[in-house]
Amino acid sequence: MKNMEKNLKHLIKCPACQKKYQHRRTIIIEDSGDRTVFHLTCQNCQTASLVFVSRSKIGVVSLGMATDLSADDVRIFFGKEPISSNHVIDVYEKLKKEGVKLSNFI
Ligand SMILES: [Zn+2]
After folding, report:
1. Which residues surround ligand 1, an ion (CB under 5 A)?
2. Distance 57 CA to ligand 1 centre (A)
3. In sequence order, what are the residues at sequence separation of 6 or more whose Cβ sits closer than 8 angstroms to the Cβ of residue 69?
4. CA 82, 76, 23: angle at the middle one, nearest 5?
5. What is the Cα–Cα distance from 90 to 4, expressed in whole angstroms?
6. 42, exposed or middle or buried, with CB in 10 Å at 0-12, 13-18, 19+?
7. Nearest-angstrom CA–CA distance, 18 and 44
8. Is 85 in contact with 36 (CB distance < 8 Å)?
9. Which helix (H) or strand (E) holds 74?
10. In this predicted model, what pLDDT tens digit does every residue of 4-17 receive, in sequence order?
11. In sequence order, what are the residues at sequence separation of 6 or more whose Cβ sits closer than 8 angstroms to the Cβ of residue 42?
12. pLDDT 10s digits, 12-70
């Protein structure tokens, strides 16, 4: 996952203003090998985003969404409720069906 993390940091853009994130504002919330969750704060518009990257049978899925949660809030949330790869895909598909605008980073 180390290489992917490095690559992602070059690819990830702010969903709000489309500027590239600065690496030092990227926090890894969770990294369990087949899934990684980043919390990012845009240095340009201060929008905080969560980015889920998950490896699954259908390939690598990435999903970014703006959030009001701080990195600490997210850690608490993730500590309580483990999220599986399938869960991320389910959420992604659900949001897509509902017409929510999603940003794909890969
Ligand atoms: Zn931004």
Report:
1. 14, 16-17, 42, 44-45, 47
2. 32
3. 39, 48, 50, 77
4. 90
5. 22
6. buried
7. 10
8. no
9. helix 71-80
10. 555 665 567 777 88
11. 14, 16, 17, 19, 21, 25, 48, 49
12. 777 788 887 766 678 888 888 788 888 888 888 888 888 888 887 777 777 888 888 88
Question: Which of helix, strand or coil describes residue 58?
Answer: coil
Reading the block at residue 18, the tokens are 């489309």
CA of 16 to the centre of ligand 1 (A): 5
| Long-range contacts, 3-12 (Cβ 8 Å, 24+) | 4/36, 4/53, 4/60, 5/31, 5/36, 8/36, 8/38, 8/51, 8/53, 8/62, 8/105, 8/106, 11/105, 11/106, 12/38, 12/40, 12/51, 12/64, 12/105
The greatest distance separating any two alpha carbons of the chain, rounded to the nearest whole angstrom, comes to 36
Q: How far is the CA of 87 from the centre of ligand 1 (A)?
A: 27
pTM (2 d.p.):
0.57
